[in-house]
Design a protein that fits this description.
The complex is a heterodimer of chains A (about 260) and B (about 450).
Chain A lengths: L1 H20 L2 H9 L6 E11 L5 E13 L2 E10 L7 E9 L2 E11 L4 E5 L15 H4 L7 E11 L2 E10 L8 E7 L5 E7 L5 E13 L2 E11 L5 E11 L10 H6 L4
Antiparallel strand pairs in A: 1-2, 1-13, 2-3, 3-4, 4-5, 5-6, 7-8, 8-9, 9-10, 10-11, 11-12, 12-13
Chain B lengths: L1 H19 L1 E15 L11 E13 L4 E12 L10 E2 L5 E13 L3 E8 L35 E10 L2 E10 L12 H13 L4 E6 L10 E9 L3 E11 L7 E3 L4 E5 L3 E13 L2 E15 L7 H10 L7 E14 L4 E12 L11 E13 L4 E10 L5 E10 L4 E11 L8 H5 L2 E12 L1
The chains are: A alpha+beta (about 260), B mainly beta (about 450).
């Protein structure tokens, strides 16, 4: 019996050792590498709440496809009518599995033109919401230094708490604190700090469930604590590993202005 | 009667099929009114008074086949843009413009689009040298190259793509020219008629803008090839067609002498590039026009013009020169700001003595816009400066999304023409002029 106990400890030791050796980077990397399918198609509603209670909605379609060395995303707006047809195409170039660079284009249906936009625009507000383009797309793990600062419950889930400091402290959000769920490595909550070190926005994720075997966040609420605005992104339809044509993720396709 | 019955039966067969397919309809209704600034000359005019209704319909026959139609009905109380209508009432105040109507077939690597379509060439704003494909409606005041001013080409466009490369070929059998502000009630036409009539004693009259008859010889052709690489987008263009705005005027008859405006061939090769450099985007555009039409200068008194027209009309013949045009632009978009600066230049190759142009002309534009209150309010300012004589124009604009469906807009423009013009009273009244326009738009 004693020998069994010792053997069990020896066998389990690597797991304990691994658990104790987990760094903030390991957890962030695992979160970044959570399976999101080779392709994905989300139909979502973005609701913008003003401080005074005003409400505006945006209906968007988000398609993603993994190619060799690059992940491509296409976001198109279908409502309201004054932004319907606006489309945003992003190529996230990966190196060793991490996003190194990104190229972005915006299609403006009113002038039938595609405009290349700078990579810095990813840190700007996404269509008047409290989300940025980067919040919706991938940031990668090479841009930050990660420190595991503890474990904490967030939204009734056991999470690791990670402090992320941007390597480029000139970024608009140079510091984030993430709560990563222990059971599925998805982000449960995030706090985003501005360049003065003050809390600017809080992201809370909810309605996390499996779709086609892939853990998916169905609702994200971003609150700007400094100005009282908030934005909610709710997935109405989620499909993974469906057939999405390669040529859908091209600038030429964007220029054609077909809404579907 | 038989034709009517046939049409009704055909519609009865076709319409249910269309409505059985997946369709998306959207539209908007907008109203706009404009007046000159107080204390400018002729401040009793209206610059615009229109109500427009736009309708767009997408019909998805299958995954690969799409039909799109866009129509605009316009009530223009001032009848300024009556020449732009495809169908109109006799007073020119109410009309219809068919903006687009095309059928699109898309496959894995090729696509074909047939019908009236709007395609925008070039990457510059306002002063693009490559945007020769689509005609424009220049009747609105101020005479700006706005997005709503584009008119469609009746064309077939064949596209092919592979990876980051794609190419479009255009065949345009029915040529449309831009619409100029020459309708009878338009203030620009009135200035021309009154000045020409008054000063040239009625001996010279404004005639017609030429039309290009559909024929095999008169077809237009174009291509655009592009590559979207990691740091830059590059496109190459070619166009063989007709000028969208006549560059030549010819004098016919003897007293009264009629001035007509025929179209001439346009042959262009060009390229553009868009390059990301940190937080900036650099835009470059260049075009080479072969055998462009240039007219002689009319630096003569009115009586000398009339005498020359009667006795030496050969002095007013157009000449051909090659022209190289370019635009350099820089965009910077920090946060909710957009700054865009452009420098454009024209170089006429060969001798320009006696021609109504300079060998080298250049200008600059600057545009700034700011989005506020979560993109509900957009403020903009833009200016253009011609380095010859320092002619300039400015526009300030504001648009506010009162709700997801309603947009309110307000804009003001002012221009200064400092070039020495002929001493014509009516011309002088408009050399420093501007106005304000207010609008409202409902989208559904």
């Amino acid at each position: 019996m004693k020998k069994l106990a010792v053997l069990g400890c020896i066998l389990l030791l690597p797991f304990f050792a691994f658990g104790e050796d987990l760094t903030g980077y390991d957890i962030a990397k695992a979160s970044y590498n959570v399976d999101s399918g080779k392709t994905a198609h989300y139909e979502a509603v973005m609701t913008l709440y003003s401080k005074k209670g005003g409400v505006r909605t945006r209906e968007i379609s988000l398609r993603k496809k993994q190619f060799e060395g690059v992940k491509k995303s296409l976001i198109t707006f279908s409502a309201p009518k004054d932004v319907a047809g606006v489309a945003y195409l992003a190529f996230d170039f990966k190196e060793n599995g991490d996003v190194k660079e990104s190229e972005n284009w915006l299609y403006m249906p009113a002038v039938k033109k595609v405009r290349r936009i700078s990579g810095n625009a990813r840190q700007d507000e996404f269509m008047g919401s409290d989300f940025t383009y980067e919040d919706i797309a991938d940031r990668g793990v090479s841009k930050d230094d990660f420190t595991l600062i503890g474990e904490e419950n967030a939204e009734n889930s056991e999470c690791w708490k990670i402090d992320c400091l941007a390597k480029d402290q000139g970024e608009k959000i140079p510091r984030r604190i993430l709560w990563i769920r222990k059971d599925n490595y998805l982000m449960q909550k995030a706090e985003l700090y501005d360049q003065r070190g003050e809390l600017q926005r809080v992201l809370v994720c909810s309605d996390i469930k499996e779709v086609d075997g892939i853990w998916t966040i169905h609702k994200m609420v971003m609150t700007n604590v400094q100005n009282g605005h908030s934005s909610e992104l709710e997935m109405k339809s989620v499909r993974y590993n469906i057939d999405l044509a390669d040529n859908l993720f091209t600038v030429a396709s964007l220029e054609r202005g077909l809404k579907k | 009667m038989k034709k009517s019955i046939f049409a009704v039966l055909l519609a009865a067969c076709v319409l249910p099929s269309i409505f059985a397919l997946e369709t998306q309809f959207s539209g908007s209704i907008s109203a706009e009114a404009g007046r000159p600034f107080p204390n400018v000359k002729h401040d009793d005019l209206f610059t615009s008074a229109t109500v427009k209704a736009d309708g767009e319909l997408y019909v998805y026959a299958s995954k690969d086949i799409t039909f799109f139609g866009k129509c605009q009905t316009v009530y223009d109380k001032l009848a300024y843009q009556s020449d732009a209508f495809d169908a109109s009432t006799s007073d020119g105040q109410f009309g219809l413009i068919l903006k687009e109507a095309w059928l699109d077939f898309t496959s894995d690597w090729w696509a074909l689009r047939v019908g009236r379509q709007i395609n925008s060439w070039g990457k510059a704003d306002v002063i693009s040298v490559l945007d020769v494909l689509c005609p424009k409606n220049y009747t609105a005041l101020p005479l700006l190259n706005t997005s709503d001013a584009y008119l469609g080409i009746d064309a077939a466009r064949l596209s092919a793509s592979y990876d980051v490369y794609s190419v479009d070929f255009y065949w345009i059998p029915f040529v449309r020219s831009s619409v100029l502000p020459l309708s009878k009630k338009h203030p620009v036409r009135k200035i021309i008629d009154e000045e020409v009539a008054d000063d040239l004693n009625g001996y010279v009259q404004i005639g017609k803008v030429g039309e290009i008859e559909p024929s095999v010889d008169n077809c237009e052709y174009g291509f655009k090839a592009r590559a979207y690489w990691k740091y830059a987008d590059v496109s190459v263009y070619g166009f063989y067609g007709w000028d969208r705005v006549p560059q030549e005027y010819v004098f016919n008859g003897v007293l009264p002498i009629i001035v007509d405006f025929p179209h001439n061939r346009t042959k262009m090769l060009g390229a553009d590039a868009s390059i990301s450099v940190k937080e900036f985007v650099v835009r470059l555009e260049g075009a080479y026009f072969f055998d462009s039409t240039l007219m002689p200068t009319l630096d003569l008194s009115s009586s000398e013009i009339i005498k020359t027209l009667i006795y030496e009309p050969e002095k007013f013949h157009a000449e051909k020169r090659d022209i190289a045009s370019s635009v350099f632009g820089l965009d910077w978009m920090p946060g909710s700001w957009i700054f865009s600066a452009q420098y454009g230049a024209n170089l006429v190759l060969g001798d320009v003595e006696g021609l109504a142009c300079d060998k080298y002309e250049h200008l600059a534009t600057l545009a700034v816009s700011k989005r506020l209150f979560r993109d509900t309010l957009v403020l903009g300012a833009a200016g253009i400066l011609y380095f010859k004589d320092w002619n300039n124009a400015f526009i300030l604009s504001a648009s506010y999304n009162a709700s997801d469906d309603f947009v309110l807009s307000l804009s003001g423009f002012y221009y200064n023409i400092l070039t020495e013009l002929p001493e014509l009273p009516l011309f002088e009244d408009y050399t420093h002029w501007g106005g304000i326009t207010a609008g409202i738009k409902y989208s559904f």
